[in-house]
Amino acid sequence: GDSVTQMEGPVTLSEEAFLTINCTYTATGYPSLFWYVQYPGEGLQLLLKATKADDKGSNKGFEATYRKETTSFHLEKGSVQVSDSAVYFCALSIRGAQKLVFGQGTRLTINP
Amino acid sequence: ETGVTQTPRHLVMGMTNKKSLKCEQHLGHNAMYWYKQSAKKPLELMFVYSLEERVENNSVPSRFSPECPNSSHLFLHLHTLQPEDSALYLCASSQDPSGRSSYEQYFGPGTRLTVT
C-alpha cells in the first residue's frame, strides 16, 4: 500500500543552522507530495507541495524537490529560526484518491 | 486565516455526555474530513465526505457519528465516549479530486477533547 516514512525526531538545532528532514514514500500511482507544519496548539498548515517529478516546492524559505528516482521529498531550509519550531508532516496523495497518507511527523525545536 | 473553522476549541465531557463538534469551511470545497490526533500516534483519518456523501469510514466506533448537511458544514456527534478518546480532532476540506487537482487539504485548528 501507499506509505510515507519520515526521519525520527525529535530534531533540535541552533538558530541559523541548516535543516534537513528526510521523507521517502511508497506509492502505486503517481503521487502529489506535500509538507504540512503544525505549530503548538494549532491545526496543520500546508507548507509546500509538488505535483510531479523534479518539481520543487518552496515557501517561507523551506524547499523540497520531488525525486522520483529515489522516491524522496526531503524538506530543507538554509537558516532556521526559533519560530520554525513545530511538527512537520510529509504526505502524499494519489490522483483520483480521496485521502492523504501522512508520515508520523517530525518534531523540530530551534534553540536561540 | 485557514478558511476552516472548528468549534469548540476545547471540550471536556464525561463518559455519559452527548456533545457535538462543528466544522465549517469557507473555501468552496466539496470534500470534508475528520481526523483524530493522539499523542505519540500517527494522524488517523476517521471519515471522508465527498459531495455530502460519506465515502470512507475507517472502522471508527459507533460512539462517533458524523453528519454532513451540506458541503460547507461537518459535524461529529459524540456519545458515551471513553477516556482513550481524548485527543485533538481535526477537520479538513479539499476539492473533490476529479483528476485535475493536486488535492491538498486545508485544516482547521482542531478541537481539544478531554473525556473524564
Write the SSE topology.
The complex is a heterodimer of chains A (112) and B (116).
Chain A: E1 3-6, E2 11-14, E3 19-21, E4 23-26, E5 31-38, E6 44-50, E7 56-59, E8 62-65, E9 75-77, E10 86-94, E11 100-102, E12 106-111
Parallel strand pairs in A: 2-12
Antiparallel strand pairs in A: 1-4, 3-9, 5-6, 5-10, 7-8, 8-9, 10-11, 10-12
Chain B: E1 4-7, E2 10-13, E3 18-25, E4 31-37, E5 44-50, E6 53-57, E7 64-70, E8 73-79, E9 87-94, E10 106-107, E11 111-115
Parallel strand pairs in B: 2-11
Antiparallel strand pairs in B: 1-3, 3-8, 4-5, 4-9, 5-6, 7-8, 9-10, 9-11
Write a brief caption for the model.
With 112 residues, chain A is mainly beta.
Q: Structural class of the helices, strands and pairings of chain A?
A: mainly beta
Biggest sheet character of chain A:
6 strands, mixed
Q: Which regions of chain A have little confidence, pLDDT < 50, spanning 5+ residues?
A: none
Biggest pleated-sheet summary of chain B: 7 strands, mixed
**What is the average per-residue confidence, as pLDDT of chain B, rounded to a whole number?**
88
Separation of termini of chain A? 41 Å
Radius of gyration of chain A (CA) equals 13 Å
Shape of chain B: globular
Order of helices and strands of chain A: EEEEEEEEEEEE
Whole-number radius of gyration of chain B?
14 Å
Q: Classify the helix fraction of chain B into a percent range.
A: under 10%
Tally of separate helices of chain A: 0
Uncertain stretches of chain B: none
Describe this structure in words.
The complex is a heterodimer of chains A (112) and B (116). Chain A is mainly beta and 112 residues long. Chain A has strands spanning 3-6, 11-14, 19-21, 23-26, 31-38, 44-50, 56-59, 62-65, 75-77, 86-94, 100-102, 106-111. In chain A, the strands form three sheets. In chain A, strands 2, 5, 6, 10, 11 and 12 form a six-stranded mixed β-sheet that branches. In chain A, strands 3-9-8-7 form a four-stranded antiparallel β-sheet, with no helix packed on it. Chain B is an all-beta fold. Helices cover 0% and strands 55% of the residues of chain B. Chain B has strands spanning 4-7, 10-13, 18-25, 31-37, 44-50, 53-57, 64-70, 73-79, 87-94, 106-107, 111-115. In chain B, strands 2, 4, 5, 6, 9, 10 and 11 form a seven-stranded mixed β-sheet that branches. Chain B has a four-stranded antiparallel β-sheet with strand order 1-3-8-7, with no helix packed on it. The mean pLDDT of chain B is 88. Classes of the chains: A mainly beta (112), B mainly beta (116). The interface between A and B is medium-sized, with 23 and 26 residues.
